[in-house]
Design brief:
This protein is mainly beta. It has 2 helices and 21 strands. It has helices at about 15-20, 255-265; strands spanning about 1-5, 10, 30-35, 70, 90-95, 95-105, 115-125, 130, 135, 140-150, 155, 160, 165-170, 180-185, 205-220, 240-255, 265-270, 275, 280-285, 290, 310-315.
Length: about 325
């Protein structure tokens, strides 16, 4: 047996029992399990500050950006003492590689802002896979966080940092009104939500968008005595502006029932209780654009397809 190894992402207890068992345990009884965590667990690599889970269906979290899973077996061979035997494994991917694309559009730009980073989370990832059959139980799922890269006119936005690691430029500019975001995940698949109108459960994608809002604060002219100067119309005279930068996180979620279902990621078996992998690679294009201002995601009022729902916002403390 050959399988990649990461004890922070995978639970090898059943595999180890199979390898050590002398009572006749067979491969058909062996399930590979993903480890799951609560957000506050010490060993969890975590999400960015301020994240709130707005998908309340009880599933825990997988480690962010988990690695692909490969597996192969060969026929057991009796090896004599001091005999040298070459074993040739050709591991095959048990997981699917999925590209996720979405578009963010800035609206109501009276308060200019930049989009500094985007973090996503997909719910409905199977966490138990039988190594012999590939069967996965759709009732055992978790949430998978992943990062999304930002692009403007086909060019990837790269942040810049100073010598101390503090971000001095996110790569975005207030005048950029539309960003394409791309994330790539390796996972066993995604279970779509049976209800296209549900706001909790598998198949829900959550998004956290981290902004920097630039506010112009007027600096008023003063006379030699320190009093504000007024013009002939009684208006305070402005001699310049100070720029105040505020960091904010905006969240939203979307039920990807139609998008995931049409992607045909999994084959449903045994009345829909179990699934198996259906392809090695797929693309998910979120057809509903994320429209937001400096305060919130602007929820759409449309029917018949996936749509974004505002998940609130908060000011956060980060180095800008």
């Amino acid at each position: 047996m050959a399988i990649n190894h990461d004890t922070s992402e995978l639970d090898y207890s059943v595999v180890n029992t199979y390898l050590e068992d002398e009572t006749g345990m067979v491969l058909q009884e062996v399930d590979m399990l993903y480890k799951t965590y609560l957000l506050g667990d010490d060993d969890y690599r975590g999400l960015r500050p301020g994240w709130e889970d707005n998908n309340n269906y009880g599933a825990k979290y997988m480690q962010p950006d988990v690695m692909p899973l490969y597996f192969d077996t060969i026929t057991p061979t009796l090896i004599a003492d001091k005999q040298l035997v070459q074993c040739h494994f050709k591991p095959k991917a048990l997981t699917e590689n999925i590209d996720v694309y979405l578009t963010i559009k800035k609206k109501a730009l009276e308060n200019p802002f930049t989009i500094d980073s985007v973090q996503a989370e997909m719910a409905g990832i199977p966490i138990s896979m039988n190594l012999s059959t590939g069967y996965m139980d759709i009732t055992k799922t978790a949430k998978l966080p992943f990062r999304m890269e930002r692009y403007v006119d086909g060019v990837k936005l790269e942040p810049q940092y100073d010598s101390e690691g503090k971000m001095i430029n996110s790569g975005d500019a207030p005048e950029n009104t539309e960003l394409l975001c791309h994330g790539n995940i390796d996972c066993p698949g995604i279970i779509y939500n049976a209800d296209p109108e549900a706001l909790d459960g598998p198949g829900i994608m959550q998004l956290a968008i981290y902004l920097t809002i630039e506010s112009k604060l007027p600096v008023y002219k003063r006379d030699e005595n320190g009093y504000i100067v007024y013009d002939d119309q009684g208006n305070m005279v402005i001699e310049g502006y100070n720029i105040k930068k505020t960091a904010k996180m905006i969240q939203g979620k979307i039920n990807l029932h139609y998008t995931v279902k049409e992607a045909d990621l999994l084959k449903y078996l045994d009345g829909g209780r179990y699934v198996i992998k259906n392809k090695d690679h797929a693309e998910l294009h979120v057809n509903a654009d994320v429209e937001l201002n400096a305060d919130e995601i602007m929820s759409a009022d449309k029917e018949g397809f996936d749509q974004w729902v505002n998940g609130g916002s908060k000011d956060i403390e980060v180095d800008i």
